[in-house]
Amino acid sequence: MLNLSRTLKFTALTLALASGLAQAQSYPNRPVKIVVPFAAGGPADNYARFMAQRLGEELKQSFVIDNKPGAGSIIGTDLVAKSPADGYTLLMMSNTHTVNESLIPTKPFGLMKDFVGIAPVNYSNLLLVVHPSVPVKTVGELVALAKSKPGKLNYASSGNGTPYHMAGELFKFMAGIDMTHVPYKGSSGARTDIVGGQVDVMFDAETTMAAMSRDNKVRALAGTGLARSANLQDLPTVAETVPKFEATIWLGLMAPKGTPAEVVNKLNAEVRKIVNNPDVKAAWAKQGAVPMSMNVPEFEQYLNADIAKWANIVKVSGAKPD
Questions:
Q1: 231, 253 Cβ separation under 8 angstroms
Q2: Under the phi-then-psi rule, with left for phi > 0, alpha for psi from -120 to 50, and beta for the rest, what region is 318?
Q3: Element (H, E) at 35
Q4: SS3 (DSSP) at 121
Q5: Rg (CA), the chain
Q6: 3-class DSSP assignment, residue 31
Q7: What is the signed CA dihedral for 44, 47, 51, 53, rounded to 10 degrees?
Q8: What is the pLDDT of residues 38-51, one digit of tens each?
């Protein structure tokens, strides 16, 4: 009887492994949707489209982008959380999501409870920029102006909890200044208004803001990495004036919890193959983006560490969702 029980368990395990292998081999056999919970035109959208094209080429199936912006990424992310865990609905996420774990604890999902990490994609530094009408040319001058006019300067972000919002809150805290946060429903509106002069200050991705600075639509004061950007060696860092200041944006792919491990691992392998491609690395370097390559357990550890990091920053800055 004992031997029969062991035989049945072994058979069930063998069948499960064979089924999982077959599922991974046949995946994907229909179009895959990547939900981007941010507005079109920003880094998450741009790199999601890049990854969709490359994944489609590698896996011989369509990967389509579905932009679902709003509520600081909550709307689109909740849609994915409630989707079937079959590998056909994925989430392009950023450190907005790890921030929101502490910034918005009442949201209808938990990142590590309702999702499984597939793989990170890349990270990039931000630029601290001002509208050309703002009478400053350095970070030190901006800090002095803000201290002379507490709360009068405002800074734009693509929404509460986004890396741009948190970079602003971290800057306020570490520089000892007060600026008014103006959240937008996506990056495009914030960029339109910083160029138009409706807002004074903005932290935004180097990948998009460097060109606006070269065209004199905004004035770049500094980068947000600890070291100067390889593409902007003449531009100082915020940390050169505000010691130890650092803020970046990173992107990754996740799926609903329960997605078969074989599918998650297959996607992880394909993403790592793409981001480690020398041509991709070279192209992204020109944009100020650095590829990130981790296996699934490593990405899970990274996610948990980032959640803890931003929880501390939310606490010390006193940031609240507006």
A1: no
A2: left
A3: strand 32-36
A4: strand
A5: 21
A6: coil
A7: 120
A8: 989 888 999 999 99
